[in-house]
């Protein structure tokens, strides 16, 4: 029984690492809609992310409406992946929620770290489900907040463009070696 458990853990671990290796920014999408069940799985992955004090200071706005997507496209300096993606997930932080427990550092840093962790979980889930994704960070925050009719206290932090990839060959980017970015202090 113990051997069976070890084998399952190895398989699960390999799958996660494979998703990390395979994940890349997709900027060209097929027009096919993603089933709601898959979007829900991706949202669940985001909600499982760690957060300071387990406050979960995030909101996920799923945008399929073309008129709203057009407003977001304009707010994103007309990035083509925003226009092409069948689904956008706008991830908003609630700085006030983090501020209540962690003061200024919570409002200025922790809520952003927390939403970034949620976004990364969503990207890995999308990869595991065969959904292409692109993390978009260049946009007019206020215009995006207004486009999704978010409460004024919320801050638009990340937009994930999601869809089935229409790219022939993914662009593989070189990564720095661990030895170049890590230092062991013993």
Automatic annotation (TrEMBL):
Residues 24-82 form the Nitroreductase domain. InterPro entries: Nitroreductase (IPR029479), Nitroreductase-like (IPR000415). Keywords: Flavoprotein, FMN, Oxidoreductase. Pfam families: Nitroreductase (PF00881). The keyword Nucleus does not apply. Gene3D superfamilies: NADH Oxidase. The keyword Membrane does not apply. Its cofactor is FMN. One of its GO terms (molecular function) is oxidoreductase activity. Belongs to the nitroreductase family. This is Nitroreductase. The lineage of its organism: Bacteria, Bacillati, Bacillota, Negativicutes, Acetonemataceae.
